[in-house]
Write a structure and sequence with these properties.
The chain is α+β, with helices and mostly antiparallel strands and 105 residues long. The chain has 2 helices and 5 strands, in the order E-E-E-E-H-E-H. Helix 1 (56-69) links the parallel strand 4 and strand 5. It is globular. It starts with a strand and ends with a helix. The modification O-(phosphoribosyl dephospho-coenzyme A)serine is found at residue 28. Its main location: cytoplasm. It is found in: Cytoplasm.
Length: 105
């Protein structure tokens, strides 16, 4: 299992008050994302656990693009990967941010 860690400047902070959100499933070609409110509002940290080695540069590009485009400041994102494609990673990250920003019922 490979562990990757990123700490990026985030242009915009996530809104809402939910403390955490969990989306996705750990399965072949999919992944699970746990979003938690942690750290400074201008930073986003991401920790990835993946069984697939050799895609560090791709992970870095996908995460940097996501943090630049979405309101991810103040979040820590934990990813348990099951060999997901980049478009699936981006989809799950967007779902996690959307859920954590949603109003609580």
């Amino acid at each position: 299992m490979q562990r990757l860690h990123y700490d990026l400047a985030a242009p915009r902070a996530a809104s809402g008050t939910r403390p955490m959100a969990l989306v996705g499933v750990v399965a072949s070609g999919n992944l699970e994302v746990l979003a938690e409110r942690k750290g400074s509002a201008d930073r986003c940290t991401v920790e990835i656990f993946t069984p697939v080695r050799g895609f560090d540069a791709l992970w870095s590009a996908v995460i940097a693009d996501f943090v630049e485009r979405r309101d991810a400041g103040g979040l820590h994102l934990s990813i348990n990967d099951g060999g997901a494609r980049p478009d699936t990673v981006t989809l799950r990250l967007a779902q996690a941010v959307r859920v954590i920003e949603a109003e609580e019922a």
